[in-house]
What does this fold into?
Amino acid sequence: MNAIAGLQTGPAEILLIGIDRNKIIEKRLQTAGCSVTRSEDGTAALNLVRHHSFDTAVLLSKGSLLNAAETALNLRDLNRSLEVVVIIDRRAKDSNRYLRQLREHPIDGTKIMTRRQLQRFLHEASSFGDSPD
It folds into this structure.
């Protein structure tokens, strides 16, 4: 699994885009030592990126490929150093097609993960940070 660069260097400023109903992803990010700013949609996220500095944007994608790709491209246009992690739902009807299209046409600086992969990565990152030296 690809690591999230912003989390490898210590506490990160994360922009969480999309609806995280039970705040599971947000809580995992905070447990891993991240500062989280939430945005419910891509338009609001673009405004935030124009005025604030973030290490990583985590995009919870439940919409179409076009919406996720367009948001990722616009975020990267505003800040070339911003890492974008697109979270896909493998249970969604078109998730296999969606994943295949994103992998066939990658967006520079963008990683693709499932919610479970991100949660596992964050759990491992927070466990690693808590372990005694």
About this structure: Strands lie at 13-17, 35-39, 56-60, 83-88, 110-114. Helices lie at 5-8, 24-31, 42-51, 65-78, 95-104, 115-130. Residues 115-130 form the longest helix (16 residues). Residues 41 and 82 are 17 Å apart (CA to CA).
